[in-house]
Design brief:
five-stranded antiparallel beta sheet; Immunoglobulin-like; Ig-like_fold; four-stranded mixed beta sheet
Length: 290
């Protein structure tokens, strides 16, 4: 990983590597690792656009921060801004960089997803995470008034109707990785909420506390506003139940035997006498329900 602000290396930044998913058996998608299985995200991201990858990285980074998930490896960038992770197997990885507070520069945290092997088949990949850095402010001679910030969250629904949608969702505001506040989003507040007068100097993220059944979640964070998108994935249609046959078959009244019937039966008996007895077994086929 090459961590830079424009062309200037950022040394001393703390980086973390998470193995979030393995390739599935068909090698056309991903199966989450055990500590990521509980999160309602769409893992069918192979071949999708970079924007979806960016939002999935932000979504996972929020849950990692809140739930204090264990990383596979940790490194600090060297004097050239490099951090190297060796001996990795095939799969989907997330690389996060902590907020950086240097002598002359401050940077916000970042998260980047990477697939191994790459599209070219290489297991050696160089990442250059997106950075949001700014020059460090020189303290004024007199103490300034305490700065305040605000954070806004908006819920977006996709591929659903109001009949499928839950009546409310709870979102959590994280301050430096800890749950700081919660808010309810619903139709009455247009599925949006804003926290104001928050103390500055902290890192804030917003996550959805619990995702409704049959929905997946993606988080898009831009400066002071976070958009949380829930996409409805309808369950597969249950198989139709077969009506079982009646336990007692309907009675059949045998036709009266006439002279013609007797003659025909006798002829059939004579025809079968030289060939032996043929028995036809009819097997009822059952169709298994999956």
């Amino acid at each position: 990983m090459n961590y830079q602000d424009d062309d200037a290396p950022v040394p001393g930044a703390k980086t973390h590597l998470y193995h979030v998913a393995d390739w599935n058996d068909a090698n056309n998608g991903f199966t989450p690792m055990s500590q990521f299985k509980e999160y309602s995200v769409d893992w069918n991201v192979y071949g999708t656009d970079s924007e979806t990858f960016r939002q999935l990285a932000e979504t996972l980074a929020g849950y990692i921060s809140r739930d204090n998930l264990k990383s596979q490896a940790d490194h600090i960038t060297d004097s050239t801004g490099l951090a190297v992770f060796n001996g990795l197997s095939r799969g989907l990885y997330l690389v996060t960089v902590d907020a950086y507070d240097g002598d002359s520069l401050t940077c916000k945290p970042s998260a980047t997803l990477v697939v191994l092997p790459s599209d070219s088949g290489s297991m050696d990949v160089t990442l250059q995470p997106k950075t949001e850095c700014s020059p460090r402010e020189t303290p004024p001679p007199t103490p300034p008034t305490e700065k305040k910030v605000k954070k806004k969250v908006t819920k977006v629904w996709k591929n659903d109707t109001e009949a499928n949608r839950p009546s409310k969702v709870i979102v959590q505001l994280l301050q430096d990785g800890k749950v700081y506040k919660e808010a309810e989003l619903n139709a009455d507040n247009d599925w949006t909420y804003e926290w104001s007068d928050l103390p500055a100097g902290h890192e804030y993220r917003i996550v959805e506390k619990t995702v409704a059944e049959h929905y997946t979640v993606l988080v898009d964070r831009e400066t002071d506003e976070t958009i949380i998108t829930n996409t409805y994935n309808p369950p597969p249609n249950p198989p139709k139940k077969k009506t079982p046959p009646p336990s007692t078959p309907p009675s059949r009244t045998p036709p009266a035997e006439t002279g013609s019937n007797v003659t025909t039966a006798a002829a059939c008996a004579i025809g079968l006498s030289g060939a032996g007895l043929a028995v036809l077994r009819v097997r009822r086929k059952h169709k298994s329900n999956n």
